Amino acid sequence: MRFMMFVCVAETAHVPTDASTVPDVEDWVKENDRKGTRVDGERLVGSQDAKTVRNRDGKVVVTDGPFAETKEVIAGFDILECADLDEAIAVAASHPMAHTHMIEIRAMEFGPS
Asked: What residues are paired with 62 via a beta bridge?
């Protein structure tokens, strides 16, 4: 079963006083690539470079910034291949950004399973 995992960062994030307790992102990527639970993923450019696109009555409207007014922005994503939601939650919980920011996961409706 495939899951989309969004790595979300907040403007005001809790940063542990001992950063050595936060796992390394590159180690997480290598481990999940090796296990086959991470299919793909990338960091995204900052939200200051985002564009929102709408098509209203045949007119394309492009505005600057993320699509929603929130304190969190999507900083990256990973596509996970997991047996079930419980495994996807465990993989997301082990991501280093889960220690200081937020991870959102959603089952994908289409694609290989």
From this structure: 53
Q: Which of 19, 4, 7 is nearest to 95 (CA)?
A: 7
Q: What pLDDT score was predicted for residue 1?
A: 93
Residue 112 has pLDDT above 60, yes or no: no
DSSP labels, 77-112: EEEEE-SSHHHHHHHHHTSGGGGTSEEEEEE-SSS-
* Residues 75/8, Cβ–Cβ less than 8 Å: yes
DSSP for residue 48: G
Task: Give the span between the Cα atoms of 109 and 3, in whole angstroms.
Answer: 9
1 close to 113: Cβ distance less than 8 angstroms: yes
CATH number of 2-13+23-107: 3.30.70.1060
- Cβ proximity of 1 and 84 under 8 Å: yes
Which run of H or of E encompasses 61? strand 59-64
Is a pLDDT exceeding 70 seen at residue 48? yes
Q: State the pLDDT at residue 113.
A: 52
